[in-house]
């Protein structure tokens, strides 16, 4: 039952986003589906919302810092060009290099979410590997038949 309704809020959110909902009425159905799936679904929904908010804030902060750095570089570079210390071509080349490197750093920041998910999934896999089964295995029972070949 949990698996049947567990993905429903996310599927409905994608549907609401794809169809478009100017009044926002469809977004009210997403928490209702989460409530219908029980407490476990609601906590998963709440965790998903919190995770999305933190990821959005993180990526927004990185993007804002990147653009503020470009503005600072342009401001200081223009001062150097006006003083005759540097040329306009050097400033343009430096800004293009900075944008290229900054874009790569922004891509790394956006992949941090996938990296965090991979860490969480791997820890869960190791938990499953290390768990002790609740039922004894028939293969370990005394007098169990052995399989052999010729």
UniProtKB/TrEMBL annotation:
Coiled coil: none
Top-rank lineage group of the source organism: Eukaryota
Any one GO BP annotation for this protein: oligopeptide export from mitochondrion
Annotated protein name in UniProt: ABC transmembrane type-1 domain-containing protein
Domain ABC transmembrane type-1 span(s) in chain numbering: 44-117
Keywords noted in UniProt: Membrane, Transmembrane, Transmembrane helix
Residues spanning the membrane: 53-82
Compartment(s): Membrane
GO MF assignments: ABC-type oligopeptide transporter activity; ATP binding
Organism (species): Diacronema lutheri
Membrane topology designation: Multi-pass membrane protein
GO cellular component terms listed in the entry, alphabetical order: mitochondrial inner membrane
PROSITE patterns per record: ABC_TM1F
PANTHER family: ATP-BINDING CASSETTE SUB-FAMILY B MEMBER 10, MITOCHONDRIAL, ATP-DEPENDENT PERMEASE MDL1, MITOCHONDRIAL
InterPro entries: ABC1_TM_dom, ABC1_TM_sf, Type_1_exporter
């Amino acid at each position: 039952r949990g698996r049947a309704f567990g993905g429903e809020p996310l599927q409905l959110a994608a549907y609401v986003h794809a169809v478009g909902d100017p009044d926002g009425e469809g977004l009210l159905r997403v928490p209702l589906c989460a409530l219908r799936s029980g407490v476990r679904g609601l906590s998963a929904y709440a965790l998903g919302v919190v995770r999305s908010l933190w990821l959005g804030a993180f990526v927004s902060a990185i993007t804002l810092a990147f653009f503020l750095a470009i503005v600072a570089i342009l401001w200081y570079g223009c001062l150097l060009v006006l003083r005759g210390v540097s040329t306009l071509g050097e400033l343009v080349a430096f800004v293009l290099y900075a944008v290229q490197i900054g874009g790569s750093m922004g891509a790394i920041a956006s992949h941090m979410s996938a990296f965090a998910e991979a860490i969480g999934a791997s820890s869960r896999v190791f938990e499953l590997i290390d768990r002790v089964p609740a039922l004894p295995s028939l293969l370990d029972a005394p007098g169990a038949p052995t399989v052999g070949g010729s």
